[in-house]
């Protein structure tokens, strides 16, 4: 069956689009989740929607699984291939079809790298309000399929909030085109919402229409020091009221992260280590007024005892230096070695006690472990990375995950904030979603993908 299928695959799409065996490069055999490398049955790299449709029609008829791949930058394993499945890479679908300043939208194929879309928007005097650390390699299709978040969610929202239209290929090859790009369109169900955050289980996103924003002309960056997590939350409340929609970033680094990464990555400290540190970014359209507003907000926070210290960048270059520690996450492997990453959401009123319980519990149960905590908490998102002692085994990693995800369940949070469930978190989906919710997800899956060929074994799929 395998040889006959791969031959039909070659006959249908041709050797230019299909790679088999040793011709499948290693980069398609894994993603950032760190799962063991797996060579797929075949790799297909289509150049247009019609070729994606032809592939899905063939795989549907043959009952062969398909694993969609974008930039493979997720940490939940949603893009990790299977030996019995076709890996479908959208990396050749890189056309930016239009950037419309009047309508404030961009039309692009799913394989466009986020940074390229951001650049195209800037060239048109606009801004794409999605920004994540992997901007140079993640693709728009993957960003949408995982409903990615990032550093600017507090102002512009998750990926879902930017999507005005989608083109999607269903499991049987049917093409759904909802590309009108209208902000108001209440003609029946908003079907594109089904595919945003679905991790490739319901269809393959091939094109999109994304909302653009006016490009701010001014930006201010401040690094602030607070005594504890409660003071950080008080600061969030304060700057939200003082800055309003000008608040575009609120990044928290607890002492574990701030100290370890500044030392390990060789980043000079603008403020001494101690309690939590917060990066505040504000953007606007009047430089003098914006700086005065930020200065006033920080001054009030210092006077009220919310902050213990603060530094406001005097230039763009100094602002980048203030961000250097927060963006040092790319150095985790160098500083810490192998890590177990967690991407969770926590209700704000539970943030202080949950962070303390996680860090204390990990230190007590796994002596020698290093746990670093940071996040965007204005949108509830907390990141935790743990480097277990070298003597740890798979059982220790599983016990760690159970400890962390049980704590998240108990505080009323979510086991996935912005990276999805994928293959890594399947056992913990019920910590956040009820049986009825999961049953509904599976009912939708059965309707759109009756042969269950799209991304099997991921998230809520069987």
UniProtKB/TrEMBL annotation:
Pfam families: FAD-oxidase_C, FAD_binding_4
Coiled-coil intervals, chain numbering: none
Keyword Hydrolase: no
Signal peptide: none
InterPro entries: FAD-bd_oxidored_4_C, FAD-bd_PCMH, FAD-bd_PCMH-like_sf, FAD-bd_PCMH_sub1, FAD-bd_PCMH_sub2, FAD-linked_Oxase-like_C, FAD-oxidored/transferase_4, Oxid_FAD_bind_N
GO biological process: respiratory electron transport chain
Keywords for this protein: FAD, Flavoprotein, Oxidoreductase
Cofactor(s) needed for function: FAD
Molecular functions per Gene Ontology: FAD binding; oxidoreductase activity
Superkingdom to which the source organism belongs: Bacteria
Domain FAD-binding PCMH-type: 36-215
Protein family according to the UniProt entry: Belongs to the FAD-binding oxidoreductase/transferase type 4 family.
Name this polypeptide is given: FAD-binding oxidoreductase
Source organism: Antarcticimicrobium sediminis
């Amino acid at each position: 069956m395998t040889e006959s299928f791969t031959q039909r695959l070659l006959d249908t799409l041709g050797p230019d689009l299909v790679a088999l065996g040793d011709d499948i490069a290693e980069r398609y055999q894994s993603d950032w989740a760190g799962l063991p490398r797996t060579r797929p049955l075949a790799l297909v790299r289509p150049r247009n929607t019609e070729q994606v449709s032809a592939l899905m029609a063939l795989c549907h008829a043959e009952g062969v699984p398909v694993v969609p791949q974008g930039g493979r930058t997720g940490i939940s394993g949603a893009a990790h291939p299977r030996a019995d499945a076709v890996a479908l890479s959208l990396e050749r679908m890189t056309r930016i079809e239009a950037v419309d300043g009047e309508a404030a939208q961009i039309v692009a194929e799913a394989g466009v790298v986020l940074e390229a879309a951001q650049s195209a928007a800037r060239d048109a005097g606009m801004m794409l309000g999605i920004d994540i650390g992997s901007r140079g390699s993640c693709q728009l299709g993957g960003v949408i399929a995982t409903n990615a978040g990032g550093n600017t969610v507090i102002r512009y929202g998750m990926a879902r909030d930017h999507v005005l239209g989608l083109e999607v290929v269903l499991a049987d090859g049917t093409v759904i085109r909802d590309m009108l790009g209208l902000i108001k369109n209440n003609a029946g169900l908003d079907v594109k919402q089904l595919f945003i955050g679905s991790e490739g289980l319901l269809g393959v996103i091939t094109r999109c229409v994304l909302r653009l924003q006016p490009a701010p002309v001014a930006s201010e960056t401040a690094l602030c020091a607070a005594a504890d997590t409660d003071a950080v939350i008080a600061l969030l409340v304060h700057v939200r009221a003082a800055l309003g929609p000008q608040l575009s970033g609120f990044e928290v680094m607890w002492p574990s992260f701030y100290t370890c990464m500044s030392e390990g990555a060789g980043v000079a400290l603008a403020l001494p280590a101690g309690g939590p540190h917060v990066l505040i970014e504000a953007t606007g359209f009047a430089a003098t007024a914006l700086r005065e507003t930020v200065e006033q907000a920080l001054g009030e926070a210092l006077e009220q005892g919310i902050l213990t210290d603060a530094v406001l960048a005097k230039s763009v270059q100094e602002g980048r230096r203030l961000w250097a520690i927060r963006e040092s996450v790319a150095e985790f492997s160098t500083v810490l070695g192998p890590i177990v990453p967690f991407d969770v959401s926590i209700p704000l009123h539970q943030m202080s006690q949950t962070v303390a319980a996680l860090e204390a519990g990990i230190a007590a149960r796994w002596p020698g472990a290093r746990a670093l905590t940071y996040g965007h908490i204005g949108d509830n998102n907390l990141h935790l990375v743990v480097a277990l002692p070298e003597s740890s085994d798979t059982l220790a990693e599983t016990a760690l995950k159970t400890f962390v995800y049980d704590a998240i369940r108990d505080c009323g949070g979510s086991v996935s904030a912005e990276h999805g469930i994928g293959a890594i978190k399947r056992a913990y989906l019920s910590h956040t979603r009820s049986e009825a919710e999961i049953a509904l997800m599976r009912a939708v899956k059965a309707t759109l993908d009756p042969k269950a060929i799209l991304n099997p074994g991921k998230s809520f799929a069987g």
